[in-house]
Write a structure and sequence with these properties.
Length: about 130
């Protein structure tokens, strides 16, 4: 039997693998627009494949944010109305979109930008594009 000693290196590695997810569900089409976790939230809207392209996705993008994920192509939808409802019903502090460098992902940032324009609230917005060679 091999016994592994708990050391600082293992503790640090464990922290790297800690999920930063703060709520459930995360799928855009499944989240209730009036969920209490949206109030006073920094909102992360992520392409569902983005976490696979970025090894430290949880620590870099999700930490301290409420995360919702989707794919306009696979869900075959425009999320604008859902985002409008979330933004109108809740006090959102900021919106960050993380998407891939592929055409279908532009639907996420377009929907978020359109929703922000529609509601007319001054909410900080950032769109991050993960590139194949990053």
């Amino acid at each position: 039997m091999v016994r592994k000693e708990n050391n600082e290196e293992e503790a640090a590695a464990s922290m790297l693998h800690t999920s930063m997810l703060r709520q459930w569900p995360v799928q855009i089409k499944l989240v209730p627009v009036n969920a209490s976790y949206f109030n006073d939230a920094d909102l992360l809207i992520a392409a569902d494949c983005a976490a696979y392209a970025c090894g430290n996705f949880h620590q870099k993008y999700m930490k301290g944010k409420i995360t919702i994920i989707g794919c306009p192509k696979l869900d075959n939808t425009d999320y604008t109305e859902k985002f409008i409802d979330i933004l109108e019903y809740n006090k959102i502090k900021s919106v960050t979109v993380v998407k891939m460098e592929v055409p279908c992902c532009s639907g996420l940032s377009n929907a978020a930008e359109n929703a922000l324009k529609t509601i007319g609230k001054d909410i900080p917005f950032e769109s991050v594009t993960l590139k194949i060679r990053d």
